[in-house]
Design goal:
Elements: E1 21-26, E2 35-38, E3 43-47, E4 65-66, E5 75-76, E6 81-85, E7 90-94, E8 104-107, E9 113-116, E10 126-129, E11 141-143, E12 155-158, E13 164-167, E14 174-178, E15 185-186, H1 188-192, E16 204-207, E17 213-217, E18 220-225, E19 230-235, E20 251-254, E21 257-258, E22 266-270, H2 277-282, E23 292-297, E24 306-309, E25 318-321, E26 327-330, E27 333-336, E28 343-346, E29 351-353, H3 361-364, E30 365-367, E31 379-383, E32 389-393, E33 413-417, E34 431-435, E35 438-439, E36 444-450, E37 461-467, E38 470-472, E39 475-477, E40 480-483, E41 485-493, E42 496-502, E43 513-521, E44 524-525, E45 529-533
Parallel strand pairs: 21-40, 35-45
Antiparallel strand pairs: 1-33, 2-3, 2-38, 3-6, 4-5, 6-7, 8-9, 9-10, 10-11, 12-13, 13-14, 14-15, 16-17, 17-18, 18-19, 20-22, 22-23, 23-24, 25-26, 26-29, 27-28, 29-30, 31-32, 32-33, 34-36, 36-42, 37-40, 37-43, 38-39, 41-42, 43-44, 43-45
């Protein structure tokens, strides 16, 4: 029997010299990927907006959209949403009826995407997309007027009881819930954090292990007890005075929650714009983006921000948790802000941030290989079960514009493979053979895996779960990683092993629903497998 020790070195980050690889999947999928959501059947819902005219992808015959309120085209026979298949690298059009521009979303515990708000005729709409196994007929189902308030640039977060909280939006200083139980609830914090350039839109939301909701807007943050509708704590402002939310558009993650240690909650916020950067950009002066990141241990009694510097200034960067627990920052620009024609100097180079083990900024950040495609305003990125990053979008123009502009509208999809996917690591990469796909809170379950070269004394074996995010505007809503309690490994035969793991202890740690489970051995992850937690 081989025992796994995970208490002291959950994240083991060896130095890997390779910088990863990019691969163009499609030069055009017909629409620009403003929003993306990975589903548990390994399909990705991609959504643009409807109010700019025709896209470059036709709908099937007799499925034209007829909308007298549309601002550009009342009869539209083109698609503004697609369903992309990861296994087959194919896609098909979906028929969204109302305007999804700058909307939000969350997966329900059953795997259905609840997509909320947008612009114009879509700002009060709830849309549902339920995965179907045959991939033949599933499409959007819409509920106009469902939301109590206009939700344009709002943020969503799934809660421990399976409800969704929907927070903010343009000139909306309140929040509401799905399923709908009453009207909205006032939140003065959102009004207080609105400045002359707004900078409080798409607030960063993170469910904390104590069940409260962390909300960050502009430079300030609070803990909200959404059950009693009161702010229970305000944290110190992030130093430097640089706004971090749309349109200054930094990004944020809740760093991995580790169930083998006393539970802590630590938030990371990176990038953004300079004060006054939005107004300056609209006047043609594109100021340098923020170079700083801040970490805040919100579970501490007296938390304070710890500031670090990225190798590259960045605004509009997507920040995703990798299966190893490291964080990748990808897409965006190094000057200007979000908004029409407001960004310059694309940052096509991802950066990987290792939050554990390194002692200084230089060691924490690793610069990766760059893409040839700028991903500016209205781009997005999501983590795939195979460990790659799916990247798409970029349209800083009011309409689709492919010529005589600095950054043409992008209809392409590409993937980025981090260094851990190098074939040179195949001997130390776990391969999951079987596992319990339905797991219950606090209950043990088993993962059987194959591993050619088990480095017992050279690192840790961990079981990590990641919730797939709804990604748009540099915000990865509902993203979450939990390092599960691994109890022991037993050798079955040859290179086959069985790992005993304990499911998340409670829904405040991991809300109910579908997660990707990765085994990570010496910082090399397996292919992720879907599990449902309830």
């Amino acid at each position: 029997m081989i025992t796994v020790f995970v208490l002291l070195s959950i994240f083991f980050f060896p130095i890997i010299s390779a910088q990863g690889k990019w691969h163009l999947l499609h030069a055009s999928v017909g629409i620009s990927a403003m929003h993306m959501q990975l589903l548990h059947n390994n399909k990705v819902v991609v959504i643009d907006r409807t109010d700019f005219g025709p896209s470059n992808l036709s709908l099937p015959p007799h499925l034209c959209r007829h909308d007298s309120r549309d601002l550009a085209l009342q009869t539209d026979c083109t698609a503004h949403s697609i369903l992309y298949s990861l296994p087959t690298n194919t896609f098909r059009p979906l028929n969204v009826q109302t305007d999804t521009w700058c909307s939000s979303g969350s997966l329900l515990p059953n795997g259905t995407l609840a997509q909320t708000g947008g612009y114009n005729d879509g700002d009060h709409v709830l849309r549902m997309f339920s995965p179907c196994h045959d991939d033949g007929n599933c499409d959007w189902v819409e509920f106009p007027g469902y939301l109590s308030e206009r939700r344009w640039y709002a943020s969503n977060q799934i809660l421990p009881d399976g409800r969704i909280i929907i927070v903010g939006g343009r000139r909306q200083f309140n929040y509401e819930f799905y399923p709908r139980s009453s009207n909205s609830y006032s939140l003065d914090f959102l009004k207080e954090t609105r400045d002359v350039d707004e900078n409080n839109l798409y607030p960063f939301l993170h469910l904390l292990p104590d069940g409260n909701l962390f909300i960050f807007a502009n430079t300030r943050s609070i803990s909200l007890d959404y059950k009693r509708h009161r702010v229970v704590r305000e944290f110190p402002p992030i130093p430097g005075g640089e706004p971090r939310n749309y349109p200054s558009s930094g990004s944020s993650v809740l760093l991995p929650i580790i169930e083998t240690l006393p539970v802590q909650a630590e938030v990371l916020v990176c990038g953004g714009a300079q004060p006054g950067g939005v107004s300056a950009a609209h006047g043609g002066n594109f100021l340098s983006a923020s170079r700083t990141c801040g970490r805040l241990k919100v579970s501490n009694e007296n938390p304070n921000w710890v500031m670090e510097e990225m190798p590259i200034p960045r605004v509009m960067g997507d920040m995703l948790i990798l299966p190893t627990g490291a964080v990748i920052i990808i897409n965006g620009a190094s000057s200007g802000t979000a908004g029409w024609e407001a960004g310059r100097s694309p940052v096509t180079i991802p950066v990987i941030y290792r939050h554990s083990g390194a002692v200084n900024d230089t060691d924490r950040f690793s610069v990766m290989s760059g893409s040839e495609i700028p991903r500016m305003y209205h781009s997005s990125a999501v983590l795939q079960p195979d460990g790659r990053i799916l990247v798409g979008g970029s349209n800083p123009h009011v309409y689709y514009n492919f010529t005589n502009v600095v950054y043409p509208t992008e209809l392409s999809l590409e993937s980025y493979s981090p260094p851990y996917l190098s074939p040179s690591f195949s001997s130390i990469r776990p391969q999951i053979l079987s596992l319990n796909k339905n797991i219950r809170y606090g209950r043990p379950f088993f993962v059987v895996f194959n591993l050619c070269e088990y480095r017992i004394n050279d690192g840790v074996l961990s079981a990590n779960i990641i919730a797939p995010s709804f990604s748009t505007h540099a915000v990865a809503m509902n993203q979450r990683m939990v390092v599960l309690r691994a109890e022991r490994v037993m050798k079955v035969a040859g290179n086959r092993y069985r790992l005993s793991v304990v499911a998340p202890s409670r829904p405040e740690i991991a809300p109910p629903g579908y997660y990707m489970l990765f085994l990570v051995h010496s910082d090399i992850p397996s292919h992720g497998m879907w599990v449902k937690i309830h």
